[in-house]
Amino acid sequence: MPFQPTLASVVTEGCDLHYWYQGTGPLLIFIPGGGGIGRQFNPIFEHLDKHFTVCTFDRRQTNDSRVETPKTLNLAQQARDIIAICKDLGREKTSIFGNSGGGVIALQFAVSYPEYLDRVIVHEAPTTALLDDATYHLDRTFMLLDVYRASGVEAAMAAFGTEMKGFEDSPPLSRPSESDFKNFWEREFLLFTIYCPDLRKIVKNGVSIAVAAGVKTADAFYARTTFPQSEIMGCPRFIVPGHHGGYEAEPVAFAAELIKIMQVLEEKKTSL
């Protein structure tokens, strides 16, 4: 059905967390990455709501999910925010889709709170520590932070964008506010870029998980990370439509591929 979600909020750990959902069936929560805004997933709702209760949210201290005192990103707390949404909806488990930094949160969720998970899809999570050129990306991370501190958000985003791929013919995408970008650079960028949860623990936890990279992303660093992620976790790696924001730019094709991935993961679970 057309995008007509139910709006809701839940107070958890000092944040009035705003979320919205639509559809019937198992719960599927989409986790935003840098900038933290959930509206980037709105276009895909109507293409999944016959299969899932589709849900997304503004991550804490972004957009409508404000806190009194902003703090440095706590990935375990970000995972607990998703649990709070799950419980507020009366669900015992949820599947999650995490994009970019949201994918790092999804991996941390699978490490820390596997009992709440059904299936997990991690889309282009930038776990640069796993790459052969990890030292380059470590240096580049601090270079980009220096650009932000010296010249501000727009200059930092322009420098960061030089290694983004596949956006040449992209339709306009949702853009976080200046304050949300500032929060990203001041409190989130470093951890999202250099931290990698213990993927071996995810294997031990028996989490049903897959990783995915966009066909237009090609060999960008955040697509290359999916190879070692898949190898370490022994999980499927999928190529999905579009670029880093393919779910927003190509929602029909992206949704169809997500449904297939979920079916593969379910078949894999039932065969064990």
Automatic annotation (TrEMBL):
AB hydrolase-1 domain segment(s): 26-189
UniProt superkingdom: Eukaryota
GO BP annotations listed: antibiotic biosynthetic process; glycerolipid catabolic process; monocarboxylic acid biosynthetic process
TM spans (from-to): none
GO molecular function: triacylglycerol lipase activity
Matches recorded under Pfam families: Abhydrolase_1 (PF00561)
The name this protein goes by in its record: AB hydrolase-1 domain-containing protein
Organism listed in the record: Penicillium angulare
